[in-house]
Amino acid sequence: MNLSRSGRLASAVLAGLLVAAVVGVGAYFINVAATRRTSPVTSADCSTANFSEPLGPLDQPSSVHHYSKAPAFTIDSERLYQATIATADGDIVICLVPGWAPHTVNNFVTLVRNHFFDGLRWGRDPSTAPGGPVIQGGSPNNDLTGGPGYKFDDEKVVSPLYKSSAYQPGSVAMANAGPNTNGSQFFITLSSFSLPASYNLFGEVVSGLNIAAKVKKGDLMNITVREQLP
Predict the structure, then answer these.
(1) How much is the pLDDT for 209?
(2) Contact at 8 Å (CB) between 144 and 136?
(3) What is the domain extent for residue 130?
């Protein structure tokens, strides 16, 4: 009798293990399939892409410069995004590449859609201490301080625009105040700029780098963003 119960118990345990194994294998293949369905673009080739009209607001907060939390992930990581920064001297056109830094692109696209940057002033040009061939904007206080009310994590710099320990001309990257303090401030490199790979690199200026070189501290900006069409 005891042997029979032991046998039934062993069979039940074996059946449970088989079910767990099947479920685990199934979950593995589901994860693999999901990974295969997601193929983030990794190059900044916006030149041959077609883009939508400028994207409108999405879950816009009552105050465009203050969010209670980081925005939800809403971009399509399989598509490029094109941001156009209007300045007094012309447009700076940027190709945003989700494959380089998906959460950073999502953050930037959301802020642009909700008019966070419109009417803000550039806070840095090459003459601003400590210097360097960069322009920087995105401070809601117009003085290189503040952000959107939240911070998000760093993403590994994988763009080919980072090489020889430098951000290459036309790199678009997040400014920060230390690890995992990204918010709304970003910079554009006008020429090769030696920096550690500690600044999320998420886009490239594809036209208007000469316009960027004319930006002065205090100049106004307005930004629109478009999504690549299927």
Answers:
(1) 98
(2) yes
(3) 81-227
